[in-house]
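Project outcomes to date are best conveyed with an example. Our students and postdoctoral researchers have been running inverse folding experiments weekly, and each run begins with a structure described purely in tokens. The record below, which covers 144 residues, was selected by the lab manager from last quarter's runs and is presented without edits.
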């Protein structure tokens, strides 16, 4: 029994202590009704500790949850609660972290501009001798 206790202590030190504040914040939001306002400090801590600060990170997490629903189903509605929690975090990130909203707006503006880079022309469409773009490329049986 003494050996098991010492091994458990060493394993616990190696893995690191659990973050009790994170656990308490997650549990309180997990079981909380959607109509109740959440303390912004709690949401800020959650977004920082879970590293869900950008829209891309939130999308990746959402896709992972959808994959879990598809593969395993949701027998006890826990995945539905996790999706609801993720939605609340997404709403918080979009409304309270201005850099994220600005970055999304800038990305949308740059993608709508007319200054798109020209597409890369594959080498197969260039003449092997002059390297000019062929007007009517023909591939013969030898592959040239």
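After processing, the design step wrote out the following sequence:
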């Amino acid at each position: 029994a003494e050996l098991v206790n010492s091994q458990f202590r060493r394993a616990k030190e190696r893995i690191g202590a659990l973050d009790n504040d994170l656990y308490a914040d997650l549990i309180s939001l997990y079981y909380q009704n959607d109509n109740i306002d959440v303390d912004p400090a709690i949401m800020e801590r959650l977004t920082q500790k879970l590293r869900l600060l950008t829209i891309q990170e939130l999308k990746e997490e959402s896709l992972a949850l959808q994959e879990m629903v598809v593969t395993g189903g949701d027998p006890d509605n826990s995945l539905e609660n996790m999706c609801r929690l993720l939605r609340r975090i997404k709403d918080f990130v979009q409304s309270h972290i201005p850099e994220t909203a600005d970055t999304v707006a800038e990305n949308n503006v740059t993608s709508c501009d007319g200054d798109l880079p020209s597409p890369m022309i594959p080498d197969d469409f260039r003449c092997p001798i002059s390297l000019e773009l062929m007007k009517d490329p023909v591939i013969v049986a030898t592959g040239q």
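The chain has one domain: 2-119. Residues 2-119 form one domain. The training component of this project remains on track.
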